[in-house]
Amino acid sequence: MAYHGVKFKTTFLNEIVPISPHINELINWCNMFAQNELAPSHPEGTYGNLSIRLNNGILFTATSLDLGKSLQNTDFVFVHDCNFETYEITVSGNRAPSSETPIHWSLYQLRPDINAIFHGHQDELLKYAKDLNIPETANEQEYGSPALVAEVKKMAHHNFFNMKNHGFISMGESMEIAGNLALANLKKININ
User: Fold this and answer.
1) Element (H, E) at 146
2) Could you report the per-residue pLDDT of 77-93, keeping only the tens digit for each?
3) Domains observed in the chain
């Protein structure tokens, strides 16, 4: 399935992405996801997106970003708000946020203990989800849609789960925990 564009309105407050002391660690995890093919390439970038919670919003990879390249602060957006009634995202930065911003925003709202959410795509994690004991959403929904957000919210109590026929979500109190959880599930494929 090809993923093109965002499905919500984006309001830009300004072009300045706040500089986080955690940006280098986030960039390292972006690169690691690309290197381990947890965020495979497509013509416009890579499939997948990573975010971290900051005090007053979330720092998020921009849409159509190649997670394997040498990234800098301007490759991210800062999400101030996600309005589900108008389906409008308010951001700082000069690039559109990922199509999965509403998913990340919802999970952060539901899970105050989570500070990092990593979303990737790995075909074998989808194919062998049942054999690997990976929980999965009940229904397939279109990416970036309110219906997919609703499906994901039902899975918020899991730290790692698949979105049916789409990709996985890995969450943790820190980037290290979220990232290592994804790598541990990837390793299960090589064992089985």
Assistant:
1) helix 146-153
2) 999 999 988 889 999 99
3) 9-191 (3.40.225.10)
